[in-house]
Specification:
Radius of gyration: 20 Å
Mean pLDDT: 86
Strand content: under 5%
Region (Disordered): 71-93
Distance between the termini: 75 Å
Number of helices: 3
Structural class: mainly alpha
Number of strands: 0
Helix content: 55-70%
Length: 93
């Protein structure tokens, strides 16, 4: 029997399917904000839980919003355009 205060006794969180859109987005923002600190300083279990929960919530977001707005600059062609512009600007005339 597990001790009630043991590391596995805490709930894994509310199912992503049960979250309304605002709460889902808020939870994703929280996880993205804390990712770097968890990666650098969290225990192996904390990092694994963070990774799993992030994947669950991101999958739910993509399921709900398959046609989400994608900024052109965040695509490969947008990055190439940005790089070409930076090269052109750095080239002496």
């Amino acid at each position: 029997m597990r001790h009630p205060d043991g590391p596995r006794s805490k709930p894994e969180g509310i199912s992503p399917h049960a979250l309304d859109n605002g709460v889902l987005l808020h939870e994703l923002e929280q996880l993205h904000r804390t990712r770097h600190e968890t990666f650098l300083y969290g225990s192996d279990d904390a990092l694994a839980h963070h990774t799993t929960r992030t994947a669950q919530l991101e999958a739910e977001y993509l399921h709900r919003f398959p046609n989400r707005q994608v900024t052109a600059a965040r695509t490969r062609s947008g990055a190439r355009t940005r790089e070409a512009a930076a090269r052109a600007e750095a080239t002496p005339e």
